[in-house]
Amino acid sequence: MIAAIPRPPVDWFALSPELALLGVSGLCLMAAVLVPDVARRAVSAALAAGGFAAAFALAAVLYDRSGGESVVAGAIRRDRYAALAAIIVAGAGLVAVAVSYGERRQGHVAEYYALLTAAAAGMIFLAASNNLMTLFLGLEWFSISLYILCAVDSDRARSLEAGLKYLIVGGFGSAVLLFGSALVYGATGQLQFEKIAAATSAGGLRHDSILILGLAMILAGLGFKVSAAPFHMWTPDVYEGAPTSVTAFMSAATKVAALVLTLRILFTAFPDEAHLWTIAVAVIACASLAVGNLAALVQRNVKRLLAYSSISHAGFMLIAIASNNALGGRALLYYLIPYSAMSIGAFAVVAARERELGREVTLDNLAGMGWERPLLGAAMWTFMLGFAGLPPTGGFLGKFYVFSAAYDHGWLWLVIVGIAATAVSLYYYLAVIRALYLRPSAELQFAVRGGQPPRDLLLQLGVLACLAVAVGSFFGVQPLIDLARHAFQTLPL
Amino acid sequence: MNAHGWVTDTLILLPLGGALLVWLVPMPRVWIAPTALLVALFEIGFWIEAVARFDFDRGGLQEASKLTWFSDLGASYHVGMFEGFSLWLVGLTTIVLAAAIAYGLWAGRDRPRAYFGLMLFLTGAIVGVFTAQDLLLFYVFWEAMLIPLYVLIGVWGGPGRLGATIKFVIYTMVGSLVMLAAVIVYGLQAGTFSMIDGGTNASDWVFLGFAAAFVVKAPLFPFHGWLPDAYRESPAEVSAVLSGVVSKAAAFGFLRICFSLFPVGVHDLRTPILVLAAIGLVYGSLLAFRAPDLRGVIAYSSLAQMGLITLGLFATNDLGIDGAVLQMVNHGLISATLFMLAGAVERRTSTGQFALLGGMARGRPALATMLMATGIIALAVPGSTAFAGEFAILAGVFRQGWLYAVVGAVAIVLAAMYVLRMISAVLHDRVGSAVSDSALDLRPAELAILAPLVGLLLFLSAWPAAITDRAVAAGRVLQASAAAGWSAYPGKGAAK
Q1: Contact B70/A407, CB-based, under 8 Å?
Q2: Distance between CA atoms of B120 and B143, rounded to whole angstroms?
Q3: What would the pLDDT profile of B240-250 be if each residue is shown by its tens digit?
């Protein structure tokens, strides 16, 4: 019976990063049962780190050896574009393991790492997906892992709340996306991205209302994952409630996967609708910039502040997609690299402070941290400058490329909106720096009892790596832009 | 990296490397400040080497070095000395920053590692602004100036420093971001960000984008909202750097970028800028005359002087530009000296309010001599270098309209009023309530910092042509990269 179903040839190597991570995920789950308590944390963290390192290496080889072809019956695309996204996600995961290790969680230690690697595998799968089925599969795969990760601190009400909120809103987003996919399939009769584009132009479906509605719903569903306004409502609450190390990973890697896929599907499946979606994406970008930056101005809780900042950065990166040109593709892929590093790094610093104080980090109890903890303080300072788009960080060049792409598309107004948003954002990023360094010593709040000592070598190494990427991407922009260019060229356009 | 440009590279990289050294290399606390000072003095040495190597008759871009940064949009690390004026402004930077670092050492700033590292970083960034030949690189250095200044004011400043830093950063960043948009528009239209190869751009809007950053940084009236707070709340030596050097970056930007890349914009918008500069000159002078404290006078006089320098630049003829370059150096040295003297007075009396000061000349000959000498030069007494600069500026701007020259001449009278008022309020009058006998004269260390600055002013008074003859190579400034627009200016060629 089974032989009756034709099975496509599978390019296992194209799936190797996912497989490595999934394998490690399974091993971690076994470690949860088989490894004795004392060694469980170390063993599972080491396994996860090894898995991420392997995925990173495999993705790098895949980048080198992929010219851009559809594999596994067109469900997956083996190209440098996906491989670059996989490299960023795996790198983010590696740092996330370093940040998570110091977390003094009582239970679910090995399960935590199992979920982290599984989520990363799903993200890498999503970035490579090339039809509407694998898209939904990848999206749900990493989303479900993240729902559980958000609620992994099951003794903390905020964590449970975050998990539940993310589940409900995320589930809604997925449903919208699925409905949209069904409509697109209904209109074109195709699942695979290039075939959708071909069917659209061949069938004269350019103005087909079902197709356009489907596209709009897919865009909305992806908007939830990217946390772009007006689909961002869950972001501050989830980022705040989730364990900080999970937030760190989520803020970087989810954005990478979702944005990379958004660009892929819009560019390859809907080139004929570009006159519509460029405007839609530009409007979403403007809304995200407005909501993210204005709401961040009044935040005192640093995690919420960074959550709103991540919404505004989704806006910046969507500008790159809205530009609908090769420069925009390069801009997005380049932007993601320093952005991921800065985002994980900033949350890692928050995590360190949180562990030290044993309570939530606000702008008030961040006071004086820059002087007490020179490395973490200087790193946080750099990340904030990078978010604000100041040199010498990759954040500056990311914004520069994004604006250049928008200008190249002929949308000077979008450049001006972006610049206005940057000017506003400066206020709250500087508020963090002000808290770190500028408060008078009378206001300093020293660590209260109940926290754990700040010494956490792995976390500091992780922050240092993020710092190196954030600053290094400024000086070494040429190789990174070349990577991004070659990646973008392998998209079937 | 190109071999002939090593001096310029060194001038940028030495202080940045020094900053890293101070931040990262463990060393005893007491070594930190001397190390920074040593780096700053070496920096002056390299500048002297650059002067020796520079061929003033040839002008143009010299000591250049170039390295591709990223090729797809045509940005590169391209630095060099463009005409004499870049060289003089770099010299001003190295000298004022060395004096400021020495002053910081003498004042014993706490958290020395951060403080001196930031001062060195600032030095490198400012030198970068004056030597960048690529607009994106220029923008990077321009922003890089802001970061250390923010922290220097915010951490070591006076009681109102938080408000001052917010104002300072928001004002300057808004201007800079508008400039970024203009940089992008220019660069993508030209296909390169190089100031040398990019050619001119005829858009008034692009010119205005750059002008936005420059008028805020200078500042010109009415964009000076940040100035009084920032100059009052900074540590004295940081105020010295801000008004002495950083404000010159704006005038430099007009001269180097706007004149050579946007001749049409300069031509179209010359009148509004001249009018703003003239208003700023008079308004700043009047405010300086009414300011109740020492730093207020210097701050507002800075506003006035930047107006005067802008008048000279936008005279758009050789005479005005030569005068403006001389006046940039003059004002840099004068305001740096005055701010550090103000710092010295404040340290002794813990106030800068004129109501509480007075009678400090008695028993404090060194302080009195320094303040008198700098003040007399500042009010442009005939024979002083400031007189030479202002005279050239007024003669230059006279060709644009006699009214500007009249306004400028009136402002010189006002300058005499506010400087003399300041001198008498501090040195003469009744002994102020904050002045006690324990307020000592300038210490030898302070004299060692201030005397070279005043000495330079006296030297320039004796020989202002040292700069005016070597500021811009005989009218070729703009021909070097933008001959087309420049010849359209009226009054051109008649000057020399």
Answers
A1: no
A2: 15
A3: 999 999 999 99
